[in-house]
Design brief:
2 copies of one chain form a homodimer. The first copy, chain A, has about 475 residues and is an alpha/beta fold. Helix content of chain A is about 25%, strand content about 25%. The first copy, chain A, has 12 helices and 25 strands. In chain A, helix 1 runs parallel beside helix 8. The longest helix of chain A has 17 residues. Chains A, B: Belongs to the class-III pyridine nucleotide-disulfide oxidoreductase family. Chains A, B: Pfam families: Pyr_redox_2, Pyr_redox_dim. Chains A, B: It comes from Streptomyces lannensis. Chains A, B: Keywords: FAD, Flavoprotein, Oxidoreductase, Redox-active center. Chains A, B: Its cofactor is FAD.
Chain lengths: ~475, ~475
């Protein structure tokens, strides 16, 4: 039986969260379905839609001039495309059985129910905020939202002193350290781990430690913050650990994030061991025909370890949104998973990783060999050939590539993409030695650094088996 | 039965050609076998061993200060590692049945026979030198060897005028155009094809044409050189085509190369349709147990089209040498083939390709869809985000990736490696859309340009099938 679209009222898609995953889903669904076929309503509790959280460090650091540059699409632009995005409206409850969500206007407190035929949960992640004395003092800042970024910039403008402490030395931590160096601050990074960048193995993290010290950043590793100290004006004046105090006119928290899944938990939706929503390959919430979830609030399959992980990253959120929107719009798409690729930089130091660290491999029950090599970004004789260190993990016996970490200068970070594709294809390191990678003296030595590592890893696998 | 190595005289490996493939093979065989086990004798007719031909344009252009920087290993260094490399010694005949080669000392003309147990043929390629009036005039230069490079530099130093013509607009042609621009010359590039860079489709080659014109280079496409005109002193003064003359104080030939396989042909060894030696996967010459061949004198399997090709490129030569040396030394390694990756640049314009062009696909009997997109090397809001154009070919119906071409600025060229690995793994463009590539604003938009192209190609494949 074929029904004319005009004979029925449109289905309604409700989207919770007006950022990358949610609005990508809404936009893609709109491309596939007209407003007569599908009404799209999205709720966002904040002031901004579709912004690049990953860009905040560069805005704070001055590389990006204005906040608006980080906004990919405003609510008005979404409206013009037939998406009813309601800002400053928080969803407070999902009634799964009743197929409706309860909302509360953040400013007026007014509550309402909105029914849905299809629901997309894209509630993102919330920064970890340790319960420390002084944590709420003026001058202590997170950097999750554009509001956070503006508050930090205002705080920097209002502060006479030039000391800053960054708590945490992951991606956000090192990027914020760069931003504050660029703003002329004396920066201290206090980090719980043995080395910065715990997403790398410690031997590679050590290179980051050394390079950051070389940039004039004080690196305090293996230290837990125990308190935030305030001055007579109530404003932050220092950060305390068990053994020392570090002066701070401003403190930036970059400790990491957790999936924002309180709503989903209350609604009885399935959560994984990392607290993220669990979905199937089409990004549909497991066991729920008409609910999808994506972005920083979900767990994703790690294709190397075969286990779920939580990774908050804009590029995944956009892919999830694209897949969800396609499926909601009546098409078909899947998100098979990740291999754990991430790149970052601190000034001219580039940092990249993909696949498993040593401890990930052990945790996954995999035995491995590991090699490290040093090479250059260009032919050694070509001007500005920059050194880089590549570490590679391969499975014992099979030689399957398990992971790559790269620390170096210009041209280091994006080389990790070679390994990311090889991991996806489940290549062995020996297969990788034959990869036909782009070679010309301005772009690579005759053996690309990744191939040099693959050759050494191949030898290590053979020796281990022999 | 186990024999003590001291009870027998060593086997002898003879290598013809002292450059990348030959000396890599020799070095790798030496790592695996002591001089007591394997004697290694190599013959090189030129003045230099193990040099980077790919580096010559950068030496001529002044980016690389001295010739010696292009020499990876001198004959003395090879000797110190137990490799008897005899320079200025040409092999004039291979006696396959007698397992020996005849040599001639280039300077004295003295001839001799050297027997071998194992033979490696690494005779390289010779530049195409059209049979034109005036082609041998002073001031007309090839750029294949270090001697060629020195002669060109001497010619530039001796020339008062500042006009140069480059014949050919492939890799060597465009790189030599850059070199001569860097030396302050008015450069004209005369090119037989409709656009420069015939290794790209014409629509992508057009971008190169435009960018090179933007650099002040006169681009003469679709024009065959008919003569080299000389002055009263016998030296070159212009290059003539059917319709015009272009003043030239110096002329550089960059028309391409052919496999140097005269010796092999005379010895009855198997050659392919491009004139290169045919080998098996272990780089052993087909039908010959004890003869290997690699580098610019062999044909290689194109893994995308399933047909043999000839590609002269140092990175392949090094891989071949590594594989040959391993096998000659008693180990096991293979060279499965290439996907046809190449990168180059003209000043700040980066050019990259991998896989099949449209005409390659047609020739291979493949039907395809093609898409082109424009994107940037970094997040659009990040400083110095450079634009690039990505063209992608995918097979009809299956959606298998067939090829990628990229023309852009900083960060464009090496992105082709993503596609090179995906081609090797025979991924579909839809599988590519889920690739977990490195993302951070300084390194990529949230959708990497290659992913943007893969998304559009996926849509094109679906639409074509629908």
């Amino acid at each position: 039986m074929t029904m004319s679209p005009t004979n029925r009222s449109p289905e309604r898609l409700v989207v919770i969260g007006g950022d990358a995953a949610g609005m990508s889903a809404a936009s893609q669904a709109r491309r596939l379905r007209t407003p007569d076929e599908l009404e799209i309503v999205a709720f966002e509790r904040g002031h901004f839609s579709s912004f690049s959280a990953c860009g905040i460090p560069y805005w704070v650091g001055g590389d990006v001039a204005t906040r608006d540059e980080l906004i990919a699409r405003t609510p008005e632009e979404h409206a013009a495309r037939g998406i009813d995005l309601r800002m400053r409206t928080e969803v407070t409850e999902i009634d799964v059985a009743g197929r409706r969500v309860r909302t509360r206007a953040v400013d007026s407190g007014a509550e309402a129910w909105t029914s849905y035929d299809k629901l997309v949960i894209a509630t993102g992640a919330r920064p970890i905020r340790p319960d420390l004395p002084g944590i709420d003092a003026p001058g202590v800042h997170g950097v999750q939202t554009l509001d956070d970024g503006q508050a930090l910039l205002d705080s920097l403008a209002a502060t006479r002193g030039r000391s800053a402490v960054v708590v945490g030395a992951g991606y956000i931590g090192v990027e914020m350290a760069e931003a504050l160096v660029n703003r002329g601050y004396e920066v201290t990074v206090v980090n719980r781990g043995k080395e910065p960048m715990a997403t790398l193995d410690p031997d590679m993290g050590r290179l980051v430690h050394e390079a950051m010290e070389g940039l004039g950043i004080r690196m305090v590793d293996d230290a837990a913050v125990t308190k935030i100290l305030t001055g007579d004006d109530g404003r932050v004046r220092a950060v305390g650990t068990e053994s020392a105090e570090y002066p701070a006119d401003v403190v930036v928290l970059g400790i990491g994030v957790r999936p924002e899944t309180g709503l989903a938990r209350a609604a009885g939706l399935p959560l994984g061991e990392h607290g993220g929503l669990l979905t199937d390959l089409s990004m549909r919430v497991r066991g729920h025909e008409n609910i999808w979830a994506g972005g920083d609030c979900v767990e994703v399959m790690d294709l190397v370890s075969g286990r779920e992980r939580h990774i908050a990253l804009g590029t995944h959120a956009n892919k999830h949104g694209q897949v969800i929107g396609t499926n909601v719009g009546g098409g078909y798409a899947t998100f098979p998973g990740v291999v754990g690729t991430a790149v970052s930089k601190v000034c001219d130091l580039e940092i990249a990783r993909t696949g498993l660290r040593e401890k990930d491999a052990r945790r996954a029950g995999l035995q491995y060999v590991t090699v490290s090599i040093e090479s250059t970004s260009r032919a050694g004789y070509y001007p500005n050939a920059a050194s880089m260190k590549v570490k590679m993990l391969a499975e014992r016996r099979t030689g399957r590539l398990l992971g790559v970490q790269i620390v170096g200068r210009e041209g280091a970070a994006k080389r990790v993409d070679i390994a990311a594709v090889a991991l996806t294809a489940r290549m062995t390191v020996e297969e990788m030695t034959a990869l036909d990678l782009g070679y010309a003296p301005p772009f690579s030595p005759v053996w690309d650094p990744v191939l040099v590592a693959a050759r050494k890893a191949t030898a290590a696998v053979r020796e281990d088996a022999g």
